Amino acid sequence: MAESSEQSSPASARTTVRRGAKRAEYERSQMFEILRAGSVAHVGVSTADGPLVLPMVYGITDENMYLHGALANSLLKDGADTEICVTVTIVDGLVFAKTPFNHSMNYRSVVVRGRARIVVDEEEVIAALQLMTDHIVPTWDVMRRPSQNEIRATRIVAVPLDEMSAKVRTGGAVNDAEDEGGPYWSGHIPVTTAFGSPVSNADAGAEVPDSVQQLIGRDLHE
Ligand SMILES: Cc1cc2nc3c(=O)[nH]c(=O)nc-3n(C[C@H](O)[C@H](O)[C@H](O)COP(=O)(O)OP(=O)(O)OC[C@H]3O[C@@H](n4cnc5c(N)ncnc54)[C@H](O)[C@@H]3O)c2cc1C
């Protein structure tokens, strides 16, 4: 299903937000916006040893999320051709209520569920590697291309972006009526993750690329 496809209702029963349903977001364009702004995917797989969730970088097209690892990567090996679950989370702020019970966070998160497919077509492999490389900042065009050996040593997995949901929380705390007049502070504070100045390697053979230079001061999740 393409990003532009209409979808404002849940894709399936298992991706229907039940708790905090007013924070649910099923609009594909909104879910893609979160996936583009996110930086790390937490990939959950049922392995022979039990459930395992590991952080990974990712890249997306209108149709798929791509993940990669070494051929020896146990998570992707166990997850191939099985149902997996991938979560992307962005923390936008801390929310202070008048009681611990009502404390919260502002956030954007997407949960994707689907069958992981091992990508074997070389054109799709290269395209996926480029998507992952360029996901946060485009640098593919200022690097050496992967060699055949490097490609052979890498496992790429695609998860269809068909069955997914998002939850978004914004704004201040919601205090209980009995606490409204209480003598406690309540509010929220934004969280940002800003890029600092680039530090060149001792063996850097070129100036800092423009795409990296332009990150300075920007928010990772903007
Ligand atoms: C931000 C981020 C992005 C990453 N991106 C990628 C990526 O795109 N591709 C990739 O292959 N790897 C990535 N990694 C590393 C990844 O999380 C795994 O460590 C790696 O893929 C090895 O997986 P495995 O299943 O072979 O681990 P194994 O070494 O077989 O795992 C065995 C055990 O080691 C522990 N373990 C493994 N990884 C971690 C971890 N990250 N933190 C704490 N304990 C751990 C767990 O207890 C696990 O059960 C990333 C890590 C981070 C933090």
From TrEMBL:
Protein name: Unannotated protein
InterPro entries found in the cross-reference section: Pyridox_Oxase-rel (IPR024747), Split_barrel_FMN-bd (IPR012349)
Signal peptide: none
Low complexity biased stretches: 1-13
Classification of source organism: unclassified sequences, metagenomes, ecological metagenomes
Region: Disordered, residue numbers: 1-22
Source species: freshwater metagenome
